[in-house]
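Record type: ASSEMBLY
Status: queued
Input:
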Amino acid sequence: MKLGLAILFGCLLAVAAADVPMVRIEGGSYTRPLEKSGQPRQVSTFLLDVRQVTNAEFLAFIATHPEWQRSRVNRLFADSGYLRHWAGDVELGPLALPDAPVTNVSWFAARAFLKDQGKRLPTLDEWEFAARADESRTDATADPEFRKRILMWYSKPTPEVLTPAGSMPANVHGVSSMHGLVWEWTSNFVSSMAGGESRSDGSPEGPLFCGGAATDPNQAVEYADFMRVAFRSSLQGSFCLGGLGFRGAKDAPAPTDPTP
Amino acid sequence: MKPIAILLGLLGALTPCQAETEVQSNGIIKLPPEIKGEEVAVLTDPPNVPPPITRKHPAKVVVKLEVIEKEMRMTDGVNYTFWTFGGCVPGKFIRVRQGDFVEFHLMNHPTSKMPHNIDLHAVTGQGGGAAASFTAPGHSSTFSFRVLNPGLYIYHCAVAPVGMHVANGMYGLIYVEPEEGLPKVDHEYYVVQGDFYTKGRNGEQGLQPFDMEKAIDERPDYVVFNGSVGAMTGEKAVKAQKGETVRIFFGNGGPNLTSSFHVIGEIFDKVYVEGGTKTINNNVQTTLVPAGGSAIVEFKCEVPGTLILVDHSLTRAFNKGAIGMIKVAGDPESLTYSGKLDDRVYLPEGGTPQIMPQQGKPLAAATNKSERMERGKNVFATNCIACHQAEGQGIPAAFPPLAKSDYLNADIHRAVGAVVHGLTGEITVNGSKFNSVMPALALNDEDVANVLTFVFNSWDNSGREVKPEDVAKVRAEKK
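Status: finished
Output:
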């Protein structure tokens, strides 16, 4: 048994050894539908993982960072839900397919994993910018069908066993399953804080809530955006959720001189 | 609920953000001496109501409510992903007493996609508990409140977009029993109306997702009592005996429509208007219940029969599902209600041959099948369409289909009998059970033959022709 486990573990290490491939996403600007100022947000060119980090990859990380094992992790950095779908400290089990996105990971754990790889979490703006694309357009948000597809996914509970990361068709950037598989951590998720009372007014975040948005019909239809805001604002850095994973990002390397 | 989820929920409540409320509910709030004892609230699924509270003093009451997102039936062949307080729509009924101190635990199941919270209209305080109960999936929150005002209150989720959370079924009722309690009745039932917006039109099969545009436009595909079409009809009808009193705790979850709540065949002896305690109206036919509002209605069932609960905005009842039933058993009460005693031809001219009050000449008898069908179509449109619907599809759980109907095609004699004599009681049509009343129709033999020929030759039915003499034969049998 022990030997078997060790072999299995070894295999997974081998599988997970390679980093998640990244694509370059050209910077630009976009408007957050719930931003009252209406000012476009600037996003610099960055690199983004083509898929979420998997259970197997996270297991490999834990092998070299035992302080992130389920039984050893500091409760300040991960709540008691941490990796609860795994069979054990270093065992995935039937609920955690090796190539499915790792979930039940805290923001702190995600950061630690990515730091080890020389990566970081995408910022909220980077994530939102990349998530506006569909299979053929860099910005599909004006298309009601695109919005419906996202909303439909938000309406369904999280399945107990997730399907593999990267198994969904990639968007025009070459990035897969920004929508439709799991929620994802961003580095500054708290910057969209909505508070628990969605209708409070007079707070600086007023436009993010239904009361605020109701005054502007153009914003009121963006249910999917509301839902991402509501979701992120329910989180704390130590929270571990069954439907919440992450992927890595990096600043784009400085442009090299094209003329040799 | 898995034990692990409970454990996680409890631990979740101890995280720094909730520390303040947790500490408060754990005794830092000094309870006044009149609050005695501690109990766990009995919560019930619709149409049941927890038992009346008999204690004569306020107590500490612990309420544990779990949010679960789950796929359930909307109508036959149509499912919907409901977001629920306790696994049912409406959510669990909560019953407390005026002056009680309520310690509320909201658990959000780990499989939930969304954070949720609860705004109880019975709460005096910021957001009705919304901010205090804002809870990520796989976590739980605790807060406490004192119920100061008696009455029947809606509770609902208030996370953005609120309209969608409510449209997915996130509402229920909390009743704050007044100190003096309510008069005793024989039955108490729990009914909440809600409007639902699905991508496919009413009846379109399969798992139907929420439709944001229809919700914003307030164009519901379903308006139902207790979360699905037929939740309170047929075998799921609630029951009473002749002479018994019934109280309905009625709520309207919305999100959008106002309900014209009515019970066909009864008069509300009492309505606690808008769910309050002071204004009790007597002898009410239809009571208006706003979205996010309630009413308590009471009546005595004097006569046996099936009482039909409807939203008297009637296309909601007959086309979108807002129908419920109370079956009252017992012997007939002929003095109060006789039922039909007699049916005969009405001759306004005093015995001379009847002249139809219509423009043009009366039609001669149909001479062939296609003529028969054409006329039958008109008869159908004026007599049958309201229940059996334009394409003969009927209304699930209320009126059986005529289209491709096994029951219809199996027995022509029986079909004629249903039209001329009426049909009452349980029948099975295309695998679904129906239990209602079709009245005898005051049509002549010619019209009956025409309409049945039309029906038999439409919507994939057997294609046979019914002649007036066939009708006369069936009619004579019961004379």
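Annotation: The beta strands of chain A are 22-25, 28-30, 41-43, 46-49, 183-184, 244-245, 249-251.
Annotation: Residues 1-17, 193-198, 200-220 of chain A have pLDDT under 50 and may be disordered.
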